[in-house]
Write a structure and sequence with these properties.
homotetramer, about 325 residues, alpha/beta, Rossmann fold, 12 helices, about 20% strand
C-alpha cells in the first residue's frame, strides 16, 4: 500500500477479503466456514498458520473465530442467549479443559458510547476470586470453581498510562493463568458494525481497537494465554471516504454516461488511486470515527450477550 | 437540489456559505461579522429578515448568532469563563430586560456521548423555581429573581413520545414566559465541530439536531419565545462523503495529470453531481454520524461553559 | 401519635403491623396471605375497603399487593424471571383485560443509587408508542399491541417542578389510558429492604417515596387509573433510632440486671415514649437515609426484574 | 472498649474527641488549631508523634490536617476555589519542594453515590504523564512539569482483587515517586458529613473508607510516600444508634421527670453501656450506612474542589 493511509480493520475476516481482491488463496492461511441456517449464525474460522500468512494478513499467527449474526442488533432475548452459548462454546475450545484463574479486562473508554463495550461487559460479570480466596472453592455460587477477577483500566487520556502497563502490573501481582480482553473494534465496512463478534487467541495487537492501542496485550508480552473478544462498533472516518472512492470507480465502469470518465480513473493503478484518495482526505478525519445513531442500545445489548457468554464458561 | 440527499447543516453560518458559492448576497439576509482578536472569538450574526431570505437559507426568519472560538476544545478555564460571559451577553440581547420565568430544556440522548450536550448542560444549572415558589423572591441565592426550571425529556426511542409533546405538556402546566432549548447539532464541516456555538431566537426546527427532530419547538408552536443554543458535535456520515467528492472535483482541476479527467467531471452540472454522489452513498450511512474520538472531554467542557452562561443570565 | 415525628413506611404491610401492636383486626381492612413454598414467595394482599380503614392505616382506600422474596437480592436469573412473572400476573389483575395505552413513569433521582430504581426500570422497557403511531399495530415486535410510552421526570432539585406538574402536563398532551409509576420506597424495617415489592392501584401519595413527594400522583388527580410499583431501598435514619429505642425498652424487660430500669421506661405510655425519642433524634437525621453498602448491585437487579414484569404484560 | 462494636471514625479529629471525654491531653499527640474567620475555614492539625499516641488514637504515627468549612456544601464557586487553594497549600507542605511523578488513585465505588468521591476526583484531573513521555517536559500545558497518572481501581466486589494488589502492581510497573489516594470516609458525627476534608501522610489504613479496606495503602507497604485525602460522606448506621443512646443518657440526666431513670443508666460504666448498645443493634445495621438525601450534589461539588486542589499543585 502506498503512503501512510491504511484502510484499517481489526477483523481477520475483512483482512482476508482485502487480500482476496486479487488472489483467492493465501499461503499459510486456512479458512473454515459454517452456516447455521436455523440460528442464522454464520461462523468463519481463520487460521493464520505461518509467518508468511501473518504478513499477508497483517495479523499475527493464531486462530480468529468470527460469528456473524444479523439478529445481534435486535431485542430478541432468546436469540441473544443462543449467541452467548456459541461464544461460550468457542471460548472453551480456545481455552481447553480444566479450571482456570482468569483476569478479564474491559478495554476502552466508558464515557464514549461505542468504546464502552469492554467496561460494560465487566459490569455484568460474575466476579468470584475474592469469594474463593475467602471461603474456598466450596463457596456458594462458584460451582465451576474458576477464579474470576476483572479490571476496567481506562484509556491513556484518563490514566496517563499505557493500558499494557496497568495490566502487566496487575498480572504480575495477582498471577492469573489466563487473560481475556474485551474491546470495541474498528471494521472496514459499516455493514459489519454491531453484527460481528471476533474471538481470537492472539490477544490485542498494536493499532487495534477504537482507541488504537500502541502496545500489544498478548501471550508474548504477558507470558500467559490472552484471548481477545471484540465487536466492531465504529468505522474509521477515512475508511468511509475510501469506500466511496472505490464505489465511484466501480460506478463509473457501470453507469452508462460516465464510462468514458470511469475508464479514465480506471487507468490509474492501485497505488495512484490511493495517492489520490489520500490527497482528498481531510486531516481532521484521522481523529474521527463513524458510528450508528442507536449505538447506545446496541452496545448495551452486545455487552450483555458477551458477559453472559463469559459467565457460562467460568461460572456455569 | 436534486433527489432526496441533502447536505445537512444546523448552522445558519454554513447555510449561508453553501449559498454563497454562486452568489455573494442573498436578499432578505443581513450579516454582521466581528472579530475579538484578544479573546480570539469570531462572531457572526445572521439576520434572516424576509420569507425570501428564509427560503434561500432553508432556515426560518430570525437572528442567528454564531461564536467561533478555537480555544473551546482546550482546557483553559479562564478562557471558558470569557465564552460563558459572551453567551450571557448575547442571550440578554435576545431575551430583553426584566425578570423572567424560564424553562430550560436539555434535548438529546444522555447515553450517546456527542448527543449528551443538552442533558449535561441541565446537570450544571442552578434551579430556582421550587425555591422561589416556597420561600418567595427573597430566598438566598436568588438575587436575580428569575425562576428557573429545567427538564431532560429524553429521545423518542426512550420515551415513545415526540419531544414536542413532552415540552408542550410541561409548558401548558407550568406556564413559563420563556423556553431555552439546548441541543447538539450537525455541522457540514468537521472543522466547525466543537468550536462553534449558535444562539438563535428561532428555536428548534424540523430535521435539526443530532437526533433529527420531526417537529419544531418554537414560538409559533409553543406561543412563547424559544431561544435555542446549539453546538455542532457531529457531521452526518453522508456529508463526509459529499465533501470528499467536492474535494475530488477540485483536486482534479488542480492536479496536473488529472486535468483532463477533472475537466470531465467538471462538466457535470450541480444536479448531475449530486445524482452521482447519491448513487455512491451506502444507505447505511444515513443512520450514521461522524464524531471525534475525544468527544467525551469536549462535550463535558462545552456543557459546563454553556450552563455557566445560563447561570450568569438567570442567577447572576 | 404525639409530636411531628412519624415512623414512616411506604408499605401497607408495615402500616398494618404498626397498628396490630395493640389490635389484631382493623375494621375496613381485609388481608389475604399466601405462601408459595417452592418459589419462596410470600404474598400479602391488603384491601383497604373503607375510609375508616384508610384512616387507621394512614393509606388511601385500595389494594396493596406485597411480594416478599428472600432471593430478590441474589443473582439467580431463573428466580428473577419467576418474580417477573408474578409481578406480571398481579399487574394484569389490577389492570384488567384488553389493550391499553400506558405511560410508565420512573420516579426518583438517577444520581442517588437507592433512589435510581424508577429511572433504571424505564431504561430496560420496550417502548412502542412511536412505532405503533408510525407503522400501526401490525408493526413487528408489538404483538401485544399495547402502546407503551415512558418518562423519567427527575426530582424537584433537578427540575424546579413538582413531579406531578410534569406528569400531568404529559398526560393531558398524550392521553394515555393508564399510568404506571415506579418508585423507590422507605421501609420501616431494614429486614424488608430490597426483598419486597409492593404493587398498588392507589398510585403515589404525599410523603411517600425516597424523595418524599409533596403531591399525590393518583387516579383522583390524573383522572385515569394509576398503578404504583415500589421497592423499599432505604429506611429513614430517624426510624433506625426509633427501632433501637424500642429494642432498648424490650431488652430492659428481659435483661436481668436492668429490669428495674426497664420497668421504669416501661411505665411511660406510647405518647411519652415518642416524646422522648423525638428529643433524642438529631435534627440532621431528618434529611438522611440508611441503605445497604451493596445497594448498587441490588437496585440494578431489582430494576431489571420489574422492567421484565412490565415487558411481559405490555409487550408479551 | 468492650466487645466487637466500635464506633468507627476515619477522622483523627474525631478519634481525639472520643478520647478527650475523660482526658484533655494525650501523650505523643500534638494538636494545632487555627481559624480563618474571613474564609470561615477551621483548620486542625493533629500530629501523632509516638507509638503511644498512635495506640491511644487508634491511628498510625503521622500528620492529619483537617479543614472544616461550612460552605463546602454550598454552591458558591469562589469559596470552593479558596478551599482548593487551601488543599494545595497543605499538600505542598506534606510533599515538599521539587517536581514529582505522581500516581493519583480514586478509591471507592463509582456506582454508589457517597462512595464515588475518589472516582469523581480522578475524572476532573489533568493527566500529563503520557504527554510528557511523548513530547518531553516542554509540552504545552505542562508548565509545572510534574508527571501525573491516575487510576480508578474499583472495589473488590467489582474486581475480585484487593485494591492494594492493583495499586501495588501499577506502582511496581510505572514507578511513581508519590501516591495520592482519594477516598470517601466514615465520620462519627452527621454534623461533619461533607464539611470536612482530611489530608494525611499516613495513607489509607485497614478498616477505613466507606468500603472498609482490608489492607493498608501506605508508605510502609508501597515503599514510597502515600498522601490520603478524604471527606466523610457517610456515618455507619450503628454509630447513629450509639449516638442516640448517648443522647438518651445525657437527656435523662437533664429532663426533669426522668432523672431517676437517667441516674440509673448513668450508673452503668462505659463498658456496660457499650454492652447494652451492642445488644440493641440489629446485625443488619453493620452492612448499612447513613447519608444525606442530597448526597449527589454534594459529592459532585466536593470532587471538583479536591481535583482543582490537585491540579493547582501538580499542573499549576
Amino acid at each position: 500500500m502506498v503512503g501512510n493511509f491504511q484502510v484499517r480493520t481489526d477483523l481477520a475476516l475483512e483482512a482476508r477479503e482485502n487480500y482476496q481482491d486479487g488472489d483467492a488463496r493465501i499461503r499459510g492461511v486456512r479458512v473454515e466456514e459454517k452456516e447455521d441456517k436455523e440460528k442464522e449464525i454464520y461462523t468463519t474460522v481463520v487460521h493464520i498458520e505461518t509467518e508468511n500468512g501473518a504478513k499477508a494478513m497483517g495479523k499475527p499467527v493464531g486462530t480468529y473465530i468470527t460469528l456473524e449474526a444479523r439478529g445481534l442488533s435486535d431485542q430478541d432475548e432468546d436469540y441473544h442467549r443462543e449467541i452467548s452459548e456459541e461464544i461460550a462454546r468457542h471460548l472453551r475450545q480456545l481455552i481447553g479443559e480444566g479450571e482456570k484463574t482468569v483476569l478479564i479486562v474491559g478495554l476502552g473508554n466508558r464515557e464514549v458510547t461505542p468504546d464502552a463495550l469492554g467496561p460494560n461487559v465487566v459490569n455484568n460479570l460474575r466476579i468470584t476470586r475474592h469469594i474463593i480466596r475467602e471461603f474456598g472453592k466450596t463457596a456458594p455460587g462458584t460451582e465451576k470453581e474458576n477464579s474470576v477477577s476483572a479490571i476496567v483500566p481506562g484509556v491513556m487520556a484518563q490514566t496517563g498510562m499505557e493500558t499494557l502497563e496497568i495490566i502487566q502490573g496487575i498480572v504480575k501481582e495477582t498471577k492469573p493463568e489466563l487473560v481475556v480482553v474485551i474491546d470495541a473494534l474498528a471494521a472496514r465496512s459499516t455493514r459489519r458494525l454491531n453484527r460481528t463478534i471476533q474471538i481470537t487467541d492472539t490477544g490485542i495487537n498494536p493499532g487495534s481497537g477504537v482507541g488504537n492501542h500502541r502496545q500489544g496485550i498478548n501471550r508474548e508480552i504477558l507470558g500467559i494465554p490472552v484471548i481477545a473478544i471484540g465487536v466492531p462498533t465504529v468505522v474509521d472516518a477515512a475508511t468511509i471516504v475510501n469506500d466511496t472512492m472505490e464505489n465511484l470507480i466501480e460506478a463509473m465502469d457501470q453507469t452508462e454516461n460516465m464510462q468514458q470518465l470511469g475508464g479514465m480513473l480506471g487507468t490509474l493503478n492501485k497505488a495512484e488511486k490511493y495517492e489520490l484518495i489520500q490527497e482528498l482526505i481531510s486531516p481532521h478525519l484521522n481523529t474521527m470515527f463513524v458510528t450508528p445513531k442507536d449505538i447506545d442500545d446496541t452496545v448495551k445489548r452486545l455487552s450483555y450477550t458477551i458477559s453472559e457468554g463469559l459467565n457460562i464458561v467460568f461460572c456455569g
